Amino acid sequence: MYVDLLIALSLFILGFLYASVGHGGASGYLAIFSLSGIASFVYKPLVLLLNIIVSFFAFIQFKKAGYFKWKLIWPFLITSIPFAFLGAKFPIKGEIYNVLLGIALVFPILRLLQISPAEKQETKEINFVGALITGAFLGFAAGLLNIGGGIFLSPALILMGWANAKESAAASAFFILCNSIAGLISIKSQSFFVSEYAYLWFFAATLGGLAGAYFGSNLYKQKTVRYVLASVMSIACAKLLFF
């Protein structure tokens, strides 16, 4: 029971932090479950469900704050949604999944440590063909790894000069929402609440996401906590890749 309460507290904190930067938190949830030794069949559908709810909260708050731009995200969605559905049809198990997930965790760690592309002073129009190709790649990776793909999209938008930090957060939240729904539909036969504690985990992450989305869209800063979270995820990343 103690471990399950600790997981719930961790999910609350992760939901808060990820939603505050427009992310659903799937990579963080996966890291916590991995460190806790929870079987993948228990948490995979639940992670996608949490991703949908937390990213929805983030999207609503950033949209209300005026940061969401439809023209910034729709080209990516054309290809990312079907490819996320397709990627979820190819579940990866065992060591290969651990290695791929461990590599994927490097991206949010870099984001949390703010070792990411510098924000451009001026943004430029999206390259439509480039967005289609990027969306397909990120969508398939999202479905394959059971995440929403926002950890890849955010730095890409900033690196290419297509969006500033707040705009990329809003776009990523909607991107994660759509891809997670596609992935969840693809594995709809699996149960969300296999564990007796899954409901506790669900509500903890949901409450954290709701709070984080509100504070994040209003210039909330948590530099110190970002470093702590990055440290925890680094341990999970090392565990997946090397142990």
From TrEMBL:
The chain crosses the membrane at residues 40-60, 72-90, 96-114, 126-148, 168-187, 199-219. The lineage of its organism: Bacteria, Pseudomonadati, Bacteroidota, Sphingobacteriia, Sphingobacteriales. This is Probable membrane transporter protein. Belongs to the 4-toluene sulfonate uptake permease (TSUP) (TC 2.A.102) family. It comes from the Bacteria. It is a multi-pass membrane protein. Keywords: Cell membrane, Membrane, Transmembrane, Transmembrane helix. InterPro entries: TM_pro_TauE-like, TSUP/Inactive_protease-like. GO terms for cellular component: plasma membrane. Pfam families: TauE. It is found in: Cell membrane; Membrane.
